[in-house]
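[audit] Reproducing an earlier prediction to check determinism. Same input, same settings, fresh worker. If the tokens differ from the archived copy the diff job will pick it up downstream; this log only records the rerun itself.
[audit] input (270 residues):
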Amino acid sequence: KTLIHAGTDLYEWDKETDTLSAALTTAMNDARSLCFQKDSRLYIIDGGKYRCYYKDGAGFVLKTVEELAFIPTTVISRNPDGTGGTSFHAVNLLSKKRTNSFLGKASVTEYVLDSKGLDADAVTARKMTSSGVWQDLAETTDFTVDRAAGKVTFSVAPGASPVTGMDNVEIRFAKTIAGYADKINKTTIFDIFTIGAGDYFFLAGNPAEGNRDYRSNVNDPTYFPDTGYSIVGQDNTDIMCYIKINSSQAIIKESNEQDVSIYLRNSATD
């Protein structure tokens, strides 16, 4: 497949017949776009929306990465009353969805999430049965949600875990944080930093955050943790590009004839 980005349109081009498909989207940013490949998927940045083009079944599709983004489990082993637990994954800048994992208690029906003011999106849940099998539960049928307070109340208590020390209740919900997705969507520069067999994807060039870059989780360009960023030098000069220097990554900033304009990023395996 060959893609052509022209103006605000993105097309598939058939080289054999020299014909263009109907536009895959007419909402591309009218600016230079860049792309990189990972696991047979093509990721496209254009300063407007981060997209992914890939084979799905018999054909190819184009989706925003927000539609495909990794959904983090932000806390595990949480008590139903909202105490205890361990932070696990950081929030994904590209996903409004997240999962909370609980260690259930006998007879308790109310479970407190790690966020309040939830989106109107449907909340989903599942519990581990006494036989150790996960059972899906549906909102309104099996539980109700107080979105403002961030609480889920089950009609029947999920009960204590049938496996000692193992979480037996998971609740998935949506909580949009304004501006989070655009931190990635508005980027215009990328680099791939490989450590051993792992690829990390760095995105920069957001005009609102010219001296900041974002790092993906290993081998996953759909997951950019909200804690995975670096502020590179002063905020009055922008990151311009990346250059590989042996095992290091050089971050090149525009010069103001005053501050450092080249930074080196190195890695270490623990």
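[audit] rerun output stored. Observation attached for the diff report: The chain has a mean pLDDT of 96.
[audit] end
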